[in-house]
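#struct-pred

JT: dropping the chains for the assembly here, can someone run the whole complex?
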Amino acid sequence: MKTDQIDRKILNLIQAGFPISPEPYREIGDALGISEENALARIGNMVDSGLIRRLGAIFDSKKLGCHSTLCAMQVEESRIDEVAAVVNSYPGVTHNYLREHQLNMWFTATAQSIEDLEQMLNQIKTETGINDILSLPAEKIFKIRVNFALD
Amino acid sequence: MLSEQDRQIIIELQKGLPLASRPFRLMGERLHLSEETIIKRIAFLKGSGLIRRFGAAVRHRDLGIKANAMVVWDVPGYKTDEAGGIMAGFKEVSHCYQRPRYQGWPYNLFTMVHGRTRDECIRTAEQISIATGIKKYELLFSTAELKKTSMRYFE
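RK: done, full complex below.
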């Protein structure tokens, strides 16, 4: 979708600090000199077009008691669709990317316990017949930033 | 740890904030809670860090930030904190984690580097290399996004 200057200002504003107050869209409008209706319509358009993937909360999965890891596996070119279908079928797999490397499929897996996480990875190994999955859980976090500043 | 009320609020939040003038009042109506309670609890969850960020998750590929590389670094153990701190200081780096090494996988620091083009990512990695003194690294460009969703913690 095509965005204009005001859309981008809205995005900058609501990626980091969406107002947690009774009339948030009015506040966003006030901050940018547009009406509440206009702010709502613009945000609605960006949600509909998929530019805004989600409006809500990003949770700290660790603080919610979850365990997660980054996984890497080597998948033959001809099997990528089939293996991706298996991997993506798990709700605990939230991200999956193909990358230019011998280890070409990289996905994140999250579960309520370490045992559940191991079981998920074992099931993926069984279903795909690919037994080598590197599991690389974060040992230390130096930075997490998920918002992007737009000009 | 989490109260049933907070669990319910998290379930509602996972569905996305309503696009209406009083979104928190609408959420409250669904849960038989007041708008004030909803706002207070969300603010508390945010303050306690359970909610890491409250707002819009944006599909940045649609915004012209099209190239992204996972840059992996082989950093000697004694240097990881220093190097991790320097990497985190780059605005092009969105995530920086330390992860375990394996046989055949020598890399222990991971950075997500974003740019408008591949060249921008390559240049950023070069700058990080100069700033940290870490010479052994690889760029893993993504060629396809096969899945990207948000975790549903409770159903």
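JT: nice. The first helix of chain B runs from residue 4 to 14. The CA atoms of residues 48 and 130 of chain B lie 37 Å apart.
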